[in-house]
Structures are given as C-alpha cells and as structure tokens.
C-alpha cells in the first residue's frame, strides 16, 4: 500500500490539518444543517472528486446542496453515532469536513492511504487536492516505497 504524500504547505491545507471536533451525536449533526442554512453566503464547497471551486457557491445553490450532504451523512443513520463530520468551530464554523460514512477507512496502522472527505465546506478558497502517492506493486514494491 502507498503512503500518503505530505499535504501542501498552504493556508488552506494547514486549516485542513488544524484542530477540528467530530460531530458524534446525531443531535449535533441535525443541528448543523439549519445553522448552515441560516448563513448560506460565502461558502466554498469542494467536492474532492472534481477540481476545486474558484468562487463561493451562490447562496441558493448552497441551500440546495445541504440536503445532498445531509443524505450522504445519513447513509449510516442506523448507527448509534455519526463521526462523519469534523468542524473547526461549533459556534462559528468556517471549515467543515464531511466524510462519506461508507468510505472512511481505518485509523489502525500507519501505512494506509489518506482518506479525504467527500466534501470540504470552507470560507477559504481551496487549493487543489494533492496528487495521490504512487501505488506499490507486490510485496517488494511496498518495501521500496516505505523508505
């Protein structure tokens, strides 16, 4: 397996690595959506499967996007807790990571690929996602890449 490359040393990726609290309780997750709906201006919505946005999402589009993000997180609503959302501040959020709860990887071990969120909502213009590290082929290839 490949190791994740270092993230770029930019304000955006430093914020990405900054302190964030997980919204574990479903009541906290449920409280987030109306909070975001009440202040829909100025949000960059970065779908990490495409190029980063160059401008904040218009407020009406942001309001239409929120149910999509909520549906993604609710895909695992059958569990006792969420754990798919990480937020920099509950009172005044400016950087939110929304993971696909069906593809969150593992926290065990140190040689796994970095799992990026499905969406990053931020008040800061995003920088492009770093290129993935090369994949090792076979046992010996993994040993060489770990050096």
Notes on the protein architecture:
The protein is α+β, with helices and mostly antiparallel strands. It has one domain (11-145). 29% of the residues lie in helices and 12% in strands. It has helices at 11-17, 26-38, 59-73, 138-145; strands spanning 21-22, 44-47, 85-87, 95-98, 119-122. Strands 1-3-4-5-2 form a 5-stranded antiparallel sheet, covered by helices on one side. A hairpin with a 7-residue loop joins β3 and β4. The radius of gyration is 17 Å and the shape is globular. It starts with 10 loop residues before the first helix and ends with a helix. The mean pLDDT is 86.
Quick summary:
The protein is α+β, with helices and mostly antiparallel strands and about 150 residues long.
Q: Output the strand order for the largest sheet.
A: 1-3-4-5-2
Number of E strands: 5
User: Which ranges are low-confidence, i.e. pLDDT below 50, for 5 or more consecutive residues?
Assistant: none
Structural class: alpha+beta
Shape: globular
How many helices? The count is 4
Give the oligomeric state of the chains in this entry, treating copies of one chain as homo and distinct chains as hetero.
Answer: single chain
The first-to-last residue Cα distance is: 13 Å
Order of helices and strands: HEHEHEEEH
The profile of the biggest β sheet is: 5 strands, antiparallel
Rg from C-alpha positions?
17 Å
Kindly state the percentage of residues in helix.
Answer: 25-40%
Domain count? 1
Tell me the fraction of residues in β-strands, as a range: 5-15%
The whole-number mean of residue pLDDT values reads: 86
